[in-house]
Design brief:
- The chain is an alpha+beta fold and 423 residues long.
- The radius of gyration is 33 Å and the shape is elongated.
- The chain is built from 18 helices and 12 strands.
- It has a 6-stranded mixed β-barrel. A two-stranded antiparallel ribbon has the order 7-8.
- A hairpin with a 4-residue loop joins strand 2 and strand 3.
- The chain folds into 2 domains: 203 residues, no CATH class; 182 residues, no CATH class.
Length: 423
Amino acid sequence: MTDAPPFGLWERTLAYRYLRAKRKEGGVALVSIISFVGILLAVATLIIVMSVMNGFRTELVGRMLGFNGDAFVTGPAINGPGRPALLQRLRAIPGVTQVLPVVEAQALVQGPDQVSGAIVRGITAPDLKATTIVSGNVKTGSLNGFGDGDYGGDLILAGSRLGEQIGVKPGDSLTLISPNGADTAFGSAPNRKVYTVDGLFTVGMSEYDQSFIYMPLPQAQLFFGRGDTVDTIEVNIDNPDHIERIRPQIEQAAGPAAIVTDWRDRNKSYFNALEVERAVMRLILMLIVAIAVMNIISGLVMLVKNKGRDIAILRTMGASQGSILRVFFLCGVLIGTSATVVGLVLGSLFCIFIDPIQSLVEAITHRSLFSADTYFLSRIPARIDWSEVALVIFWSLLMSFIATLPPAWRASRLDPVEALRYE
């Protein structure tokens, strides 16, 4: 018998037969099933966890930057007669999509039910409408009257969770109390004023939905005693990842008297923590995949022991060591590959249908699995990164191949005389 090409017909046929164990070889079949299920669950878990973590990062970055801006200009240069020209220079920078002057301060909010703290952000009505993450998520009420009347009127926009907490809805009144009012001879006098809720917004992040109130810019300047000044100028760009390229142009347009920061400065520790957590979680789960793949070794060692007589007969008939190695290597590869493919399908389907799965489990258990108060977002996000999925598949297949080699090599080195001595 001459050597057949790699994974020839008879080698594939023999490998398939060995995997279909008989009743008396149930131990081998059981170990193979355990290996298959272990690899399947490990691959699916790795895909699901990494997709959820990618979804978290995408959702958080998108909502945080959409709500807060990409770059911030502060300092004395943003106030005074030169501010209109500064705004014009910033808007002329390629890649800049929005430039808005902002007044932002803390205040106490008193409603029918209770008193709560809030961050009041004053911007113009056109700028608020252009901030689509807010204006596009007004769930109740509207923005029709926002900014109308003297000093922008007394209509405000509040977060939905804040409205629920203090017990107000569109058309109701609430009282804002600020310790930073107008300056007097005796210092800063607290301000207290009643406003009407024009609408309630929901951006999907509990921190913002529970803490923020939008007020017309002239009204905010009046209420907080800012005069004609603003606290900062927010700059939004078309792609936040390009901030490193656009920031020098913003600094040049703002001038030496301005201080320019960006979203990386304000959230550096937070995003670094996310990246470290993501890297560590990936490493742990890849080790779990490797551990699950090690079960292939147990199954193949038992298979080689049970098939010692068959191996000896094949060798005496002329089968080469390479052929025997390929037969048992193919047995392990079939287990690892099939489990990896099924794990890929299962993990991908779970991520695609994660919202219906969450709703179904919550309906069955009558409990919220993902509370916005605890987890910062109102739903479980999942974003499949196919390049990362490819890395998972490569790792699982690589470990399957490596785990298969030792028992397959042992089978190929089996001495036919020793194997048949006691038969």
